[in-house]
Amino acid sequence: MGGRKLSVPIVYVVGENRLQNDLLALFLVNEAGMRTEIVSSFEKLALTFPQKKSQEGLALYDCQGLGYEELSQLLEGVQSLVSKSFHVAFFNVNDKIDIEKDSLHVGVRGFFYSRDPLESLLKGVVSLLNGEYWVSRNLLVEIFLEGDMIHKNGKGARKGRSILTTREIEILELVAFGEQNEVIADQLCISPHTVRTHLYNVFKKINVPNRLQASLWAAKNL
Predict the structure, then answer these.
(1) Distance (Å, whole) CA 82 – CA 58
(2) What angle do CA 112, 57, 100 make, to 5 degrees?
(3) Hey, what's the torsion of the CAs at 79, 102, 107, 222, to 10 degrees?
(4) Is 188 exposed, middle or buried (0-12, 13-18, 19+ CB in 10 A)?
(5) Cα–Cα distance for residue pair 24/11, rounded to 1 Å
(6) How does pLDDT run across 186-214, given as a tens digit for each residue?
(7) What is the pLDDT of residues 46-102, one digit of tens each?
(8) Dist. CA 177–CA 142, nearest whole Å
């Protein structure tokens, strides 16, 4: 019986450390049955990327030994790779170089640090392939607070409050601080179902697919 062939997501492990990347790819295959491919650089991946543009997948880039300047230069090429179905994440990130905010702005969706266990990386890769982000709650809070300070100091135009109701703003601010629906419901004395309904309306109004993108939008617009 014929039918349309479904696209299967693929994880590209990108970097020059062949032995480490082979082992990582093998781990993803053995533990989660993922399709993987080893590529030595983003440049080589980009050579064949036009044909892969409609394919779902993820590029995991090895940042071992890279500093802020090197990663900043790398970000220039990230935007040409990302799409609605193909994402980029960094692994072996040095948590002291503070590259995450710049990376998020150009489309990087996740960060795995040198200290992270393999189990955490596997969980994060699954989330990224499902279209989610993989960033720390502390980073989300920091981004939100920075946006809030800009608003209070009058240094930026904040248009978001004109399209959301007061209740929607309350819920979105709690989401930006990492609270789950049940906690939000308790704090606002409403039901979890009501919280979900408000969030559905918020996502639709601001045109975002998930909580993390809504949090980033809130940091810029509330």
Answers:
(1) 9
(2) 30
(3) -130
(4) middle
(5) 11
(6) 989 889 999 999 999 999 999 988 888 88
(7) 887 655 556 678 999 999 999 888 898 888 778 778 877 889 999 999 988 888 988
(8) 9
Position 123 scores a pLDDT of 93
pTM (global) more than 0.90: no
| 77 burial level (CB within 10 Å; 0-12, 13-18, 19+) | middle
Q: What is the 3-state secondary structure (H, E, C) of the chain?
A: CCCCCCCCCEEEEECCCHHHHHHHHHHHHHHHCCEEEEECCHHHHHHHHHHHCCCCEEEEEECCCCCHHHHHHHHHHHCCCCCCCEEEEEEEECCCCCCHHHHHHHCEEEEEECCCCHHHHHHHHHHHHCCCCECCHHHHHHHHHHHHHHHHCCCCCCCHHHCCCHHHHHHHHHHHCCCCHHHHHHHHCCCHHHHHHHHHHHHHHHCCCCHHHHHHHHHHHC
